[in-house]
Amino acid sequence: MSPDVTLGEFEFDCGESVPDLRLAYEAYGEFTGDNAVLVCHALTGSHHVAGRRRRDDTAGQAAAWWDDIVGPGKAIDTNEYYVVCANVPGSCYGSSGPLSEAPDGEPWGTDFPAVTVGDWTRAQRRLLDELGIPHLHAVVGGSVGGMNALEWAKRHPDHVDRVVPIAAGARLDAQCLALEAIARRAITTDPEWQNGDYYGEEPALDDGPTQGLALARQIGHVMYLSKASMEKKFGRRSAGMDAARDSFELDPAAGFFPYREVESYLDYNGERFAERFDANSYLYLTRAMDSYDLAAGYESDAAALAAFDGELLVVSFTGDWHFTVGQGEELAEAGRETGGRVAHHVVESDHGHDAFLVEPEHVGPPLADFLADGITGRAVTDTTETDDGGDFAPVHTSLFSR
Amino acid sequence: MSPDVTLGEFEFDCGESVPDLRLAYEAYGEFTGDNAVLVCHALTGSHHVAGRRRRDDTAGQAAAWWDDIVGPGKAIDTNEYYVVCANVPGSCYGSSGPLSEAPDGEPWGTDFPAVTVGDWTRAQRRLLDELGIPHLHAVVGGSVGGMNALEWAKRHPDHVDRVVPIAAGARLDAQCLALEAIARRAITTDPEWQNGDYYGEEPALDDGPTQGLALARQIGHVMYLSKASMEKKFGRRSAGMDAARDSFELDPAAGFFPYREVESYLDYNGERFAERFDANSYLYLTRAMDSYDLAAGYESDAAALAAFDGELLVVSFTGDWHFTVGQGEELAEAGRETGGRVAHHVVESDHGHDAFLVEPEHVGPPLADFLADGITGRAVTDTTETDDGGDFAPVHTSLFSR
Known about the structure:
Two copies of one chain form a homodimer. In chain A, 32% of the residues lie in helices and 14% in strands. Chain A is α/β, with parallel strands linked by helices. Chain A has two domains: 4-172 and 293-397, Alpha/Beta hydrolase fold, catalytic domain (Rossmann fold, 3-Layer(aba) Sandwich); 176-287, Orthogonal Bundle (Rna Polymerase Sigma Factor, Chain: A), CATH 1.10.1740.110. In chain A, helix 1 (117-131) crosses helix 2, helix 3 (174-188) packs antiparallel against helix 4 (210-224) and helix 4 crosses helix 6 (261-276). At the A-B interface, helix 3, helix 4, helix 5, helix 6 and helix 7 of A face helix 3, helix 4, helix 5, helix 6 and helix 7 of B.
């Protein structure tokens, strides 16, 4: 099991409080006073960033989810940096959330306060205080973890030198908001959800509306892949007779049609996910992502970032339609507007949003060099360096936004 | 009510039969021997193509769905052409399908045979025989209706002079197959589905798993719009307090967050759709679309089209990711390969797949001119005419495929 800390009473942005916020976290390397790097996990990730051994507390894709990037001699080199990652409040891997125990001894369920990315950031700040880390060399995060990193630049601009949002943006667009909303409805319309009050005597990750949660995850998988990567990975191929077709009850007429590889992939991964993640946490964390808006409380994204005078590396992927290259460029533009030192490093990739997890060979080098040398790092490129940088600019006219 | 015909015993591609296939259809204009145009409706459309008055049998978007295109003096001019449209077998607007009465006096439900686009085409051929129409001037269809049009060129190449697939392709790609599969699971996991046996004493369109069907439709709406059109139409705006938030039970934590316009749109349209469409038909028709492959039984798309020596107009839309411009170009290439007279007319549009319904001003002129003069029609353009035609070519390297 990972260490955890209890941070006392914590008031969430929504105004509600819990009497004693618990955070599960993991730390790697040795703290030397100026080498702390905070890693922020994505929606369904955990504090368990790296190290493929042991662990009962995380599983599947939440376990050692960035082992290719974080470790001794890797891009975020734990021989050099002291790396900390905390499971965010509202999640289900040891930190306080719907699955954890409320003061009455029962799981919180949906009585747990609504959480925001701002809450995560404030909780991380308190964790670092506990650990005696006043200042961060860097905050790095992918997807909604990238929003979490941005929130550090906005909320604690003097506490961090370098910020790296990867496959992220200042806010979700309407298309992604729609898909997230549908995914939540798949959970809440599952009769097993029971208004969030579905936990058994020994509350477990696989309690509750497993079919609805599996459906929600299936929608997520489509968002995380690109059209091209799905075509390459699955095409229209039949999964063959061996493939389990029993995850979901299918319509009787289905018998005449093939069970395709893409369905088999979705069913398998949906089912596995429902075993390892709490459905209420999925509702909470997607709401936090949906509601995040870098500009909230400010005039603009640029204004929100104005007080941060560290360096910003935005990493985006050409095949990502969850957070597009256009959104990455908007973010970089916002950083540049107030004279910030910013690089927008675009990775050519067909892997879609998942690229930040599955292309360590393209993410590692710019990340390592940025941590060492900032935006002048050797492997770091910037869209302003190339003639066609303008192609990436405004999301509304970008091809990616169609 | 529309006319309907009973066509006697009909054996489906799956090998099962119904004793007396019924087709509801609509005809507009006067038949003069060589002026018949068959219109093929999309997934959830009906035979009721045009004419905004009367009608108890179709509603919502199924009613007069192409009234901007079909009618006196319109692009498909009913003063000139005899226009026929039939509700496809498996649908729920009067033709035989799961909702219709089986020989035992009960609704067929999922005992109705699986249907294919080939079945639709053969049924249409028999309907035209009944009506005394041996030969068609043209077959026109949008989305899966475009696949239906292609199937005419493949199956009855000598019975039609001009074929117009609009916002269509030779087959669905893996990304769309995935979303369709998830949509079906939303229906079959709704406990009200009851293995398809959900009809009341007086079977009606709104019987059954309305929440699952609404969710399926919500997924469809995302597929029919583009990223850009959703951003413009909804952005991240809150729907305001007036918006009904009661279509779906929401998680209690939702109270802290806005109910957004995009959610309100999805909820409203999902609910309306569940009132007007049969859930089993949705399963049947999406399976027909998913399984369609122009090349089936042939070496290639080109081989499947080789016997057709009429003219082919492929119309595609730049913002459509359900059937991309790249897929349109692949189709046109297949037609060109065997020396066919083909034009691929690309419409610049941010409207996504819906463009074929909502941009009559861009669809009408090339369609009208093609019906009159073939690919030499004045408003018809072709990708081979422009230098950048190559940009549209192979779907795998197209930006749209990312």
